[in-house]
Amino acid sequence: MNKNYYINILKARLSPERFSHSLLVVETAMKIGEKLALNKDDLWLASLLHDYAKDLSCPELLAVARKNKLITCKVEELQPGLLHGPVGAFLCQQDLQLREQEVLQAICYHTTGHGEMSLLDKVVFLADLLEPSRSYAGVDELRKICEDDLDKGLLLAFDGTLQYLLREKLLIHPLTVQARNRLLLVRERRDIE
Ligand SMILES: [Fe+2]
Ligand SMILES: [Fe+2]
Prior knowledge:
Hypothetical protein af1432
């Protein structure tokens, strides 16, 4: 894989802050994924490109999403920022000829999560939240928990997101609810067995 090719494309596309965030997400994802059974090229690519569409405006995101039938629910129309995941995956496929489905899926769902998250999806999702420039309340605790138990960290991350959405009276994406439910059900099953 020609890493510089992707790095240069991303650098030309994103603001310097977003580009440096992307590099930090790569660094964090590779660290989290070090001992996990993951394709490291896929992990590198998905974490680098996860915000490929992040610097598009809301009208631009909506236009690409509508034209290519990427919208899955009303929440995305009302909060188009959420579309930077699916639109990013679509554009990576279209502009960069990226064909790795696992990578495209991790990019697509890095903001909402979803009910069938792969290990790659989970690591990219968490690396985005945990990269070293993130400084929200509870981030250090989340970093620590993720070192021991990725799913426990993920559950805590979804709890934090949902609490924020409730507090701010924002819409909740159904995929985020599905993602959290799935984590809880899996844990419950594990406790019973
Ligand atoms: Fe993002
Ligand atoms: Fe990000």
